[in-house]
Amino acid sequence: MSEARGSGTEGGARLLLDRLTRVVALAGGLVSLAAAAVVVYSVTVRGLGIGSVPGDFELVQIATALAVFSFLPYTQARRGNIMVDTFTTRLPPAVNRAIDALWDLVYAGFAGLIAWRMIVGARESLSNGLNSMVLGIPIGPVLLVCAILVGVLSLIAAWSAALRLAAPE
Amino acid sequence: MSGLSVAILGFAVMLGLIAIRMPVGLSMLVTGAAGYVYLSGWSPFLAYLKTNPYYQFANYTLSVIPLFVLMGAFAERSGLATALFRAASAFVGHRRGGLAMGLIGACTAFGAICGSSVATTATFGRATLPEFRRYRYDEGFATGAIAVGGTLGILIPPSVILVVYAISTEQNIAKLFQAALIPGLMAAFFYCVVIALVVSRKPELAPRHERAGADERWSSLAKVWPVVLVALVVVGGIYGGIFTPTEGAAVGAVAMLLIGLATRTLGWTGIKESLLQTAETSGMIFIILLGAEIFDAFLALSQLPTIAAEWVVGLGLPPYAVVALLLVFYIILGAVMDELAMILLTLPVFFPIVTALDFGMTTEDVAIWFGILVLIVVGIGLTAPPIGLNVFVISSIAKTVPITRTYAGVLPFIAADILRLALVVAFPSLALIIVRLLN
After folding, report:
1. Which of B50, B67, B160 is the best substitution to test chain A (most A C-beta atoms within 10 A)?
2. pLDDT score, position A82
């Protein structure tokens, strides 16, 4: 459970972390659901033989990328990433906490690197006007939103490292 | 260093990092990136990162994962697992061990709308443990059966593991789903046989109780027909080629939402929880997928997969012996490692080996058959000691049952799984016959 334990400002910081990532993840989930609704509509009109929705697969692709990038900060905040603790259970809890904080920081650094490169990629796509094949949806802005979400992930990972060191669970 | 030794070093470092608590996806990202940079330099890697993570996720095929997770989450919040369990146990619950068989039946039906074993285990753990306790079933027997029943979530199509296999090896998801049907139903049947055998030797594990009346049977069925209908439409539609797996998943998710709304079992809180559960599970899966993508790019640069395949083929071992060795390796590795990461890490090396061997079948048939074998060993890995994810899940729900008792409960089922694995190895048509009939 992700209830705020800790006290005072630490508890408050954890709560804010939960809220923020939750809102982002919910938005992503709704995007996924909306894509599902478009697909159902497309399948229905195709089944009834009254036309089709051209390029619905492009919407699904874009929606999936947006949704997944918005899920990542939530998974990190919930500590939902799979890790193996079989070999380190005998270490003192403080040591394990320090190790976990270190990996959070590595994750933050790597996400920061990806965010930076994706922003560069987004700017290139914006300047050469890259559009999707069928619907002509501009890819640059989508890339930019995804890059920002990876940036959020980087901040959240750094934040959770700080919380691990500050507030023992 | 040659590409080959870098790749082997990369594997070793990655496993070492996993052993010291680095999240699995992150350790694949980090070692994959380091190997990539070592073999090809910084600027190709920095260029690779510009759009590759986006295109990795902006993937029509991969969209089935969040959608199937969402469909299962809606089903779970609508209380359908409980309804399925009531219906199944209304018919067989009065037999000795009948409640456990009812559980297996309900998990089989639920497996047709849920593609995740962890979700199936958690759902049925919460829904059925109170019933098992009420009828004084042995707790380790019950939790063992739930952990094993949970694997039906992936053994019965749709299956997240098969989607990941299909993407990693560029195979057709619909055909893999078709191939999983008979082995999946065999699993359910074998589990029921195991239950019957165990309770006939130790009747005290599962006390008998009174038979449900006809009224109770029919009213319990009335509550489950919508799920059964959705499962038939989704799986049948994908099998029949009426829609793509993504379309099937979308139809299933929307249908489960509508059923939940219509029966007033799903409100805004339930929808929100379902979306968040989807977010957490999908986030967990996709970070491993991204890590595997970068690690695979590194492996491809190192040429390890090609060299390994040529080497194994050059040994001239009997093809079936090679497959048997790989499966034994998977069972051992799956006992101590996360199964999703295991298959994503090993397939780039193992798949070229298997498809290079001559089994007297087409390459596509071999690929599909091997996918089903991998699925079976993943199922074993999910329940086998010392690290069985499903057992951990049920232990976190049944906190009073020692984990060793759950493992003891699981063991006879693992024997049945190994028998089933041997059968599908010996008779590939158990997997391939449905594919041949439908295509």
Report:
1. B50
2. 80
Question: Greater confidence, B208 or A112?
Answer: A112
Report yes or no: A22 at the B interface, CB cutoff 8 Å.
yes
Chain B CA closest to residue A60? B60
Chain A stretch 99-128, residues whose beta carbon is closer than 8 A to a beta carbon of chain B: 99-100, 103, 106-107, 110, 113-114, 117-118, 120-121, 124-125
CA B281 to centroid of chain Cα atoms: 13
pLDDT of B227 reads 82
Strands (E), chain A: none
- Dihedral pair phi/psi, residue B129, rounded to 5°: -55, -45
- Cα distances from B312 to residues A12, B317, B318, B349, B371, in angstroms, run 57, 8, 10, 11, 19
CA of B272, closest CA in chain A: separation in Å?
7
ipTM (interface pTM): 0.90
pTM: 0.89
Q: How far is A103 from chain B (nearest CA, A)?
A: 6
Give the position of tokens 């922003």: A119
Q: Distances from the Cα of B78 to the Cαs of A32, B84, B108, B114, in angstroms? A: 20, 11, 18, 13
Query: A162 — contact with chain B (CB < 8 Å)?
Result: no
Q: What pLDDT does residue A168 have?
A: 57
DSSP codes joined into one string, B324-375: HHHHHHHHHHHHHS-HHHHHHHHHHHHHHHHHHS--SS-HHHHHHHHHHHHH
Which residues of chain B are under the pLDDT cut of 70?
none
